Recover the amino acids of this structure.
């Protein structure tokens, strides 16, 4: 797949990827079908894209549970390392 945007988690048909682009700050992308959300990690909030309400709710619920791991993944990306996988939403 896209080496510049590794998959860090998958749940309920949602794929979480991280694009390491320093100018945009710590964020991740949640892809569901043809929908995509861009979520800032700190502060935790949707900063772009569209997705069904239930998908948005699931992504934000997952992000709250894993915010520290998301920040660690972001730091891995910044240092050129592959981020570790993050557990899916149960």
């Amino acid at each position: 797949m896209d080496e510049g945007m590794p998959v860090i988690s998958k749940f309920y048909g949602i794929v979480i990827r991280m694009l390491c682009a320093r100018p945009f700050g710590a964020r991740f992308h949640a892809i569901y079908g043809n929908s995509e959300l861009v979520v800032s990690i700190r502060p935790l909030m949707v900063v772009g894209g569209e997705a069904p309400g239930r998908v948005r709710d699931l992504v934000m619920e997952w992000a709250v549970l894993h915010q520290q791991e998301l920040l660690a993944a972001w730091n891995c990306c910044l240092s050129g390392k592959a981020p570790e996988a993050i557990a899916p939403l149960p």
